[in-house]
């Protein structure tokens, strides 16, 4: 290369980098309107169901953002009640977290609020209301949020399945009875219809030989899922938006609690023209077909699976300092068959049923915070900014609880004393009955932050607390 050509190439690269920098710093403007609508969850021939929507669709529009690029999302409330938007899993400023009373004044009917943040992490996230969340999520308000890596990751396809669970009447309408005593004190409002991107049991078209990235997000109120891909071997790439060491799930089942996301790689090794069901069999005796992978009749796009490494680039999470860590513990109590003190609800549960008349059914460290969040909630514990916190979560109840922390990702260290492999970071950690899980995070994000069960009935009935980073 001549000196002139070399200098021209350098100048061109510099200009390109400058343009990329300018693009990265520009604010990405988005608009979302929350309003009633109608959808046909069972396809064109099924009944029309009255729902609540983001921009007229269920689920809401997939927001694809760029890692590190500022975004401004103007949310207009077209409902007859207050709402907010929580950007689930995004490590953002406290004032943008969407918890009514705690981090913002709720968006009143007919009013708007603009959320502004720059997502630091690439990965799969989602958005949903945090006001009257049991009803609003149960009526359809949920949408996927994808933060794309700074450098493209090599896959033949990038698929997204946002999974929602609906409790419908015989005529296809959303059933009433939100917040019933039985749901509040047991497994929550599990429905009778599951949709993938707003459709029940859709087919997923695939082609032999391709490698796809499949993003799974459970936006249900309460339904736990355990997905089996018949004839395929999924490889877990990321959990809750955070890359992990690629691995095949235990027993081939992907356990996905409400609010959790799992990114997997799927090498499509079925025969052209073949069909392979995806089964959810979490609940004993209640397995059902979620969807079907349908291969087209074309020849495979390659004779053998790709040999390229599957690991995704890690996100810029802060370094843990175990030598100077502080320890905090939260204990989950209550529920039917669970017992335990409910100090904030008047002491030991006596002759009344837990969760009766909208009261508390659950407690964390003996205290019950009910509802969606409000001003003046006293923090369970406080952390100095920059401190590493070792957090132990102990489930003394007889029920499953996906515990979600706002504003942070947790390094999951051990479960019942056994080390957790694959270097997993999560914002929603599933605790089975009687589980004890040890996690760690760096308290680098100041503010009052919510920590709660993402079974919405459990949160509303007391399984919620707040901690403060100062």
Task: Describe what you observe in this structure.
Residues 42-150, 186-273, 377-470 form the Plastocyanin-like domain. This protein is mainly beta. The protein has helices spanning 3-25, 133-138, 181-185, 456-460, and strands at 28-39, 49-54, 63-66, 71-77, 86-88, 112-117, 123-128, 143-148, 157-166, 193-196, 199-200, 203-206, 211-218, 225-229, 235-239, 242-247, 253-256, 261-267, 275-280, 288-295, 326-334, 341-342, 347-348, 362-364, 381-383, 388-395, 401-405, 410-415, 418-419, 425-426, 428-431, 436-442, 447-453, 464-469. The protein folds into three domains: 22-148, Immunoglobulin-like (Sandwich); 157-295, Immunoglobulin-like; 322-469, Cupredoxins -  blue copper proteins (Immunoglobulin-like, Sandwich). It is built from four helices and 34 strands. A seven-stranded mixed beta sheet has the order 11-10-9-13-18-15-16, with no helix packed on it. The model is unreliable at 1-23 and 340-352 (pLDDT under 50).
